Amino acid sequence: MIRAQVTDRDALAARPPSELAMYLRAHDWTIRERAGSSVQWVKTVAGEEFEALQPQESTLRDYASRVRDLLSVLAVTEDRSELDILSDISSVSMDIHTVRTFPPDNAPGMIGLEDGVQAFESLRNLVIAAAYAVSVEQPRAVQPARKSADVLKLLREVRIGPSAEGSFIISVHTPVPPRLSPSLFEEELPEPFERRVALKVYDAVRAAYNAANDALVDPSGFDVFTAAVPAGVSANLCEALIGLGGEAGHPFELALRLAPSRPIRARQFPPVRFRRDHLPVLASAAQELRERVPEEGAVVLGNVVRLHREGAGTGEITVAGAVEGDDRLRRVWMNLTDEDYSTAMLAHQEMSVVSVRGDLVRRGTRLYLTNPTAFRITAGEA
Prior knowledge:
Strand content: 25-35%
Helix content: 25-40%
Number of strands: 13
Radius of gyration: 26 Å
Number of domains: 3
Largest sheet: 5 strands, antiparallel
Shape: elongated
Order of helices and strands: HHEEEHHEHHEEHHHEEHEEEHEE
Number of helices: 11
């Protein structure tokens, strides 16, 4: 078998000493001594002791050469290519979710442009759905468009990883702080927000997979999805999973690899694979969740484009605009009191922007805002 070697000095020099040390510690190397600008690590493999020198200062003139020597030792002890090991060192403090898609009639590693764009956007939405479920005390079946500061901060930290060999593989890398205490105390220490989100992505996806399987045989198929809401299943998560299947609804699987610098030794994460027949079930579940469960406290901002009232009293209006936290242009129907309807008439005549808060629910192809409050004309733009 051909073992690729790394000779690119820039790639070698880019790995800081902290990543090298965390990788060695995570793979059961132990420190024998510190000498000058290096740390001597040792490990016994199949009865044979190996030594590895890890440079401590990246400012050394021969730093890249020292990393190259370290890689050479690791390649022998692990029986792997230096290229693979260097990649793992780069992500030693990253939780990695990998999505392998299986688009039909495509060469390995290829996918249609539209399906590819949709896959990346859906993977982002999957992370958002899981992060929201972690950030709130009570997960919702329909998540609000506006996200908390914690969710937005996490999105800025998450990275898209390089593609890999396979049908078509995309991945997200979430940085997590390393675990410094012995593994004996893993269960006693709280996990950071980043790690809890990584676990929630996997657990919620598996819960949605199980619900999709059960819904096909359960007389009350929708109930299995509502029962899975505490696990992180939501209309948002189901829609993100559907998007990973692309327009053609191709199969895909999701896997999780936790950062070696922060292991959880008691858990395994086998890949979760969705078939074509799972996707229509997820679509039905997402639609029913949105129709039955309102998005509470939604704020709609836009222009009044339709007015309808018979006589005096309450009346129905339609606002064309956006829901706060979501840039998509949508039409929203709502019934207003006599006073608010008069304000809506004035806004319509003057082409003014209005703002209103309520519970957003889908009925068929329409969006309705129930329990509308705080209806007013604003000075902003839709």
